[in-house]
Amino acid sequence: IKKIGVITSGGDAPGMNAAIRAVVRTCAYLKVECVGIYRGYEGMIDGDFKAMDARSVNNIINKGGTILKSARCAEFRTKEGRQKAYDNLKAAGIDAFVVIGGDGSFNGALIFNKEFDIPIIGIPGTIDNDIFGTSSTVGFDTALNTVVEVIDKIRDTASSHNRLFFVEVMGRDVGHIALNAGVGAGAEEILIPEENLGLERLLESLKRSKASGKSSSIVVVAEGDKTGRNVFELKEYVEEHLPIYDVRVSVLGHLQRGGPPSCFDRVLASRMGVRAVEALLEGKTNLMVGIQDNNIILTPISKAIKGHTKIDKELIRVSEIMTT
Ligand code: F6P
What we know:
By secondary structure, the protein is α/β, with parallel strands linked by helices. It has 11 helices and 11 strands.
């Protein structure tokens, strides 16, 4: 392998730049050429490539987003799109690539690798932490810190007005952000896709909370929670069934994806970037770099996207005790 491409794809996550930097610098260290592929698979289809050396990634370890830009690309889902992408890689002399992204990006990589013989290694980059084969994805820790910081601020105003807040956090299919940030921010209830607590239980818990003398209440709701109601509908439901509360809603949205990466994410991304390049040079392919018990490990990408991440039951138990 003489030339390695690096690409960021899907939703961006803080720490992606640190991962790009690690891939580029490891290539420079091991004397392999490196090429940045811009705008995710879209840029692969358009041949939007730029040679990168150790100095191309100066001063980016501390920056959120991705300097390579990202996209969710519909054309890559077609055979014709993937053929164009392959032709461009060949024309540019790119023998292998590292894809930094989540579920969708890895799915694309697997199909691509089946059709064309090009080695691929994945680095999990998503704030959702919904990838099997790693206890933490790049961006998850930063997102948690961001959410906790924001909920702390919401709590100030909630408690000044004796209000109840429904705070919606990201997590289309999983509740890792909601559960961890909820515990970290001292939420009274946490609603996640993995468990449906039911609306009756929510009302009971809020009643108890008020009766016990709490001056404010924060309910953290994952985007994909299964009560069947979004945060605005939950607000209406509680106002109707529990008029003792003055209720407000805060949807945190994309601010959760931005900001400088935490030290944890920077170190994680650096370790994963090094291992990804080394793995390619060892002749490996279709694997994802992950971290387990502080060891850097490799998992087949097919498992990473199919094996479901499990919500931490012990943390659910802790959260229940903490609402006393
Ligand atoms: O990065 C994953 C994620 O944050 C999901 O939790 C969320 O539903 C989605 O991205 C929204 O992303 P976009 O607005 O880019 O489609």
